[in-house]
Amino acid sequence: MKDFDPERLQQQMAFLREIDREKSVLRQTYLHDGSRKENDAEHAWHLALFVLILSEYANEDIDVSHTVAMVLIHDLIEIYAGDTYAYDEAARETQAEREREAADRLFALLPPDQSARLRALFEEFEARETPEAQFAHTVDNMQPTMLNDASDGKSWVEHGVHLSQVLGRNERSREGSEILWDYMLNNFILPHAERGELKPD
Measured between alpha carbons, how far is 132 from 38 in angstroms, rounded to an integer? Predict the structure, then answer.
């Protein structure tokens, strides 16, 4: 056992208290029954389970625990940066800068070694270069698409989303899993285009 460092524990507890705020960051995706919108913490929990259950469909073998850690922390910065809706083009223009500043502020609460580890996971997700990051992005796209399907396209209808926007958002989803992308397209996206819940161009 390492020598006990009270200051280190205080830093860790400060971080853990702060990230409780993720539960208050609302997303635009509704729960499966359409009763309310999910929050960022619920989204991260759901993604972790997506990775645990669906990792066998990754295009390449992935480190599951590493990918779970990545999806659990990837949206923590939205505590300060706010959630950027996938189809809000104006907000997306400032997203990268807002999220970098938020990462600087949030991860600085941790002891240096843990700060560096979590920051590296965040940056790995953003860079989308490793098999783990690519699969994390695939499930990050699949989860809200599944919930839109379950709620009869409620969020898509509410925001007047076009089929081309959803396809554009998912243009790289196949990089993490060809199988999951094909499933998503044929089961969660195209049926809503056929019913008019996703607008044609």
Answer: 25
DSSP string, 124-147: HHHHT-SHHHHHHHHHHHHHHHHH
Q: How many CB atoms lie within 10 A of CB 189?
A: 21
For 143-197, the pLDDT digits (tens) are 999 999 999 999 999 999 999 999 999 999 999 999 999 999 999 999 999 999 9
Reported as a single tens digit per residue, the pLDDT across 42-75 is 999 999 999 999 999 999 999 999 999 999 999 9
Task: Give the Cα separation of 58 and 77 in Å (integer).
Answer: 26
C-alpha to C-alpha distances, 139 to 20, 64, 94, 179, nearest whole angstrom: 23, 13, 24, 12
Assigned token pair, 170: 């998912």
Cα radius of gyration rounded to whole Å, the chain: 18
